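Archive maintenance. Older records in this collection stored only the sequence; we are now back-filling the structure field for every entry so that each record is complete. The fields below show one back-filled record exactly as it appears after the update. Entries are processed alphabetically, and DUF4956 domain-containing protein is next in the queue.

ARCHIVE ENTRY
Title: DUF4956 domain-containing protein
Organism field: Arcicella lustrica
Length field: 208
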Amino acid sequence: MQDISSIDTLQNIQESGFQLLDKLSPKFFLRLCIDLIATTVLVRFIYYRTYHKTEQFFTFFSFNITIFLITNLLNNVEMSMGAAFGLFAVFSMLRYRTESISTRDMTYLFLVIAIGLLSAVSKGGWDELTALNAILLIMTSILESKWLVKKEHSKAIIYERIELIHIDKRQELLKDLQNRTGLKVQRVEIESIDFLRDATRMIIYYFD
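Back-filled structure field:
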């Protein structure tokens, strides 16, 4: 009797699983595929290619899938669009409320959430959804490239030749920094000066 009961329970679970799959239309899986492809291109081939960082991969994909599934559910039960965007805002801020994150990483987090939201609520067909995601990806790729402006980077350093920080010796300071670092230093910002140790803390700005 116990074996028969176990078999019945297993059959009920399998039937429930099939019923769940039947409720998910092919349109849902098509949108999910477009969403995952767009997110993969954004994270792997734009974000990683530019910054070579992998620690945010889990966060990006998790937020994207979560937003897509929940927004799709809200869309099916006909909740207001305001509620969906409210959820979007909550998820955008919840993860990083008490943790510092760079502006670039926050921007990419916003983008992956936007892709998930767009893929879930768009009323157009798969071709329109693909075109919208493609526009978003192309614009991001262009902005991350050097086509529009050169990328300026910065580093904080401790510099001991304190006599060169005078405004009249700025060109000599830049030349010395370029010789020491091998970087194309364009400008500097003095943060603090320690006259007791004859050193200064500064931020150097340079192009690739």
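Update note: Residues 98 and 197 are 36 Å apart (CA to CA). Residues 2-144 form one domain.
Entry marked complete.
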